[in-house]
Each structure stands twice: as structure tokens, then as C-alpha cells.
Amino acid sequence: CKTFSPKSSSGISMIGAVGTGKTTLLAGICNELINNGYSCLFTTLSSLLDKFSGYAYDNAGNITPLLNWLTSFDFVVLDDLGRETYTEKRKEIAFRIIDALLNNKVVVGYTANPEMIVKLKKIPEWNATLDRLKEICKISFKFEGNSLRGREVNTDAINQASL
Hints:
The chain has helices at residues 22-35, 45-58, 64-70, 88-103, 114-121, 127-136, 155-162; strands at 12-16, 40-44, 75-81, 107-112, 139-143.
């Protein structure tokens, strides 16, 4: 966050099991960037696909205004990638979304579970989309271990770590 620069920072991919802190970490990054005056969008690709599909239907297929809106953010987080459902139209829109983010040099962070990446790799039309995400997100984190959800948090350890 200290060295963040819109249009020149590298994106981040966070892949790991459910509950290992991927979303929490990206939310913290977004909060810090917002506190530093940057614009962030934290969403899911599924929500974007719903929004873009409805808009395309109402506007004779033209999603350019929504792509312009999306690419106006300094940092875009796509949480839980791979959970979305696909029709031919939604595959096309997903590609256009990721392609617009790449071409406009928007910094992107995404989270996914390993099995969702495997699922996406089995969709032939997703190869180009995944390749673009790899180009956007050059920083990659792998989260291992078991879900942290429902565990008691040791706030003393957190306070010590932040000192």
C-alpha cells in the first residue's frame, strides 16, 4: 500500500482454501488504499456479470459505459473467482471485463479457491481470460492451512504484531 501507484502497480492473486484469510487481507488493502485517497471496488465477478448482463440486455448489448465505469477505479478486487455460472454471453462479458481491466492498466486483486481455478481451466473460452489475469496479477500468494473461521482471535498477538 505504501508504494501503490495506479496504472503501474502489479495486481495480486490470492489462491487458497476457504477461510484462510484471502478476502480479509484484500479488504484490509482496500481500506488502506481508500484511506490514502485511492478509489477501490470490492466485488465478485458474479455480481459484475449480473450487472453487465442486465445492462447489456437493456442497452442493445452495449456495455461500454459500464466498462468505462469499471476501469475508472484505481484498484478492483474480484472476490471468490470461479463461483459464477456461465452462459455463452456471460463468458463473453467476463472476457471483456478482464480484457478492459488489462488494457486500461487497472490494478486488480482476486481471490479464488484452488478447485475454482481448476473449474475455470476446464472452460475452453476461459483460457484467454486466465492468461490476462496472470498478466495483470504478477504478485501471487498461496494460502495454506485450515479455515480460520469460527476460531477465537488472540488480539494480544495482533496488537504485538502491529507495533
